[in-house]
Structure formats: C-alpha cells, structure tokens
Amino acid sequence: PYYHVDGELVPASRATVRVDDRGFRYGDAAFETLRAYGGTTFEWDAHAARLEATCDALELTHGLSRADLLSRIDEALSANDLADAYVRLSITRGVQPGKLTPDPDVEPTVVVYVGSLPRGGLEGTPVWDGPAALETVETRRIPNDAVPAAAKTHNYLNGILARQELEGGDEALLRDEEGYVAEGATSNVFFVEDGVLYTPTIDGPVLPGITRRLVLECADDAGIPVEEGRYRPERLRNADSVFLTNTTWELRPVGSMDGVTLEEDGLMRDDDPTDDDRIFETLSRMYD
Ligand code: PLP
Fold first, then answer.
1. Can you say whether residue 40 is alpha, beta or left, with left for phi > 0 and alpha for psi between -120 and 50 degrees?
2. Are strands 40-41 and 29-37 parallel, antiparallel or unpaired?
C-alpha cells in the first residue's frame, strides 16, 4: 500500500511521522474519517467543512485548499487501486521540537491513509458483524469551552477511556455531566419510539456526525417525524429500536443495551415492528 505524507505518495513501510511531530507529542492535530464509494469520496464537502471548523477551533492554519486535500485523497485511492475505501485524513501542526507554544512558521504534517472497505448499505456488506451491544459507561462526554466536542482532534482519550470500561460490549454510551445521553465513543445515537426518530441535540457535547446529518435529512425527505433533544438512557432502553451512526458503520442497529436485549434481530421489539423496520430500512437505503 501507498499513503500520502506531506504531499508525496510513499510506500506504507516508509509512511512515518517524526517523533517530534506535534500530532504525536500533544495530539495537536485535526482529522476526518471518510469513505469512498466507487472511487468517489462520500460527502466530501461536509467533511471538508467540519475539518475547517476543527482547524478554526485549534487555530491551525495549513494553507491547503479543499481541492488540494481532495486531490491527495484521490491520488492515494488511485495509487492503491481502491474504489470502495476507508480514508483517514490528518493534519497536524507539524514538526516542532521542544516547546508547547506553537511556532507559526512550522509546516503542518498532512497524512492520507487509505484501506479497502467493501460497500455497505442494505445491499452490500456492512463492516459490523451484527447488531451492537451498547453499554452505558461512567466516563462522561465533557463539554470544554476551549476544545468543543464538535472539533475532531487527535485527542480521543475521552472515547478511549469510555471504550476501556466496556464489559464485552461493542460501543460505549457516554452521557454529559448532567446524565443526558450524548453519543457513543465513535458514533451518534438514535432511537425510535412510536414512529418518531429521536437523537441527542448537538447543542450538547456531541460531535456533529456527517452520517447523523444525512440520517436527519433522509428522515425529513421520507416524512419521518424527528425530534432532537436531551434524553436519559432509560428512554433508549425502553425504545422500540436504537441504532448508531458513523461514517464507517453507516447505520448500525443496537441489539442490546446494558445487557437487556432489545430484539433478536437487533432492530425492534414492539408488537408491530413494521414501522421501525421501515424507518431503519428507509434510512439505510441512502447508501444503495
Ligand atoms: N461521534 C464521535 C465521538 C465520533 O468519533 C464519530 C466518528 O468517528 C461520530 C460521532 C460519527 O461521525 P461521522 O458520522 O461524521 O463519522
């Protein structure tokens, strides 16, 4: 495989970042996880906009246009002959030994990592093995005025600590400081109750997921009523169905929450599952 490092395609074995890179030393970096379908980067403008928002929050200027960044992704995809792929784009504040205060003259480090990932959606092969076991954890999603939850930085310790708490489950459910559901360690969360689709508001400490927004738009188009709000974990445990979203998983049903089975097939448990099935299917169709 070949990866893109600082504007050059290099074989994987030589695709390295220096030990005095600020992304390594301090997590001083912005990133995006994307997917390519049929050789085209999915929702590029949305990812590029979120990356710009992260860079603004970190006051990290890299001087590369959206077109430059996209062409590096395209080059990495073609060099590896990949059409359906996982793409990770990272921009660190660059190599700067010694001090915490950023030197404005340092060149950023730009890395594009790609790997094969088959098509998902209802017709394809989802990357997940089956419905997720979701566990509510004690680690909280802490809002931080300096680094907002909306910034996607290399510092993922919040999610890592949450994942380490798992007792055999697949995804950790983080609450905010007041106990309301925020999101998964690397996913946004939705639930369906009586035909209404609910998801925690991004006014709380929640990453504004690109998949989350697509699901909300798709629900709107399909005439599915939506509410964004603040919910306790009990609401999810008692819901007709629960699912998670992120770029790699797309839509992933939740089969159990805190050890309580929601439904054998991971989707529904009300007497008339048609509505929930229909909603999950309608929303998943956007990938087909
Ligand atoms: N929330 C967190 C904390 C994440 O890390 C991610 C993605 O990795 C998501 C939500 C989902 O975001 P997206 O749909 O843009 O992949």
1. beta
2. antiparallel
CA atoms within 13 A on the CB side of 134: 33
Asked if 180 and 279 sit in the same domain, the reply is: yes
Per residue in 62-121, pLDDT tens? 999 999 999 999 999 999 999 999 999 999 999 999 899 999 999 999 999 999 999 998
Retrieve residue 175's tokens.
């609450």
Contact 236, 260 (CB under 8 A): no
Single out the residue in 85, 116, 147 at which a domain terminates.
116
Is 57 in the same domain as 198? no
Note the pTM of the prediction, 2 decimals: 0.95
For residue 169, report the distance from its CA to the centre of ligand 1, in Å. Answer: 18
Q: How many domains does the chain have?
A: 2
**CA-to-CA distance for 286 and 17, rounded, in angstroms?**
37
Q: What number does the ligand 1 atom closest to the CA of 183 have?
A: 1
Name residues contacting ligand 1 (CB within 6 A). Answer: 33, 159, 183, 186-188, 207, 209-212, 245-247
Q: Burial of 59 by CB count in 10 Å (0-12 exposed, 13-18 middle, 19+ buried)?
A: exposed
CA distance 280 to 286: 11
Q: Is 187 exposed, middle or buried (0-12, 13-18, 19+ CB in 10 A)?
A: buried
Does one domain contain both 272 and 166? yes
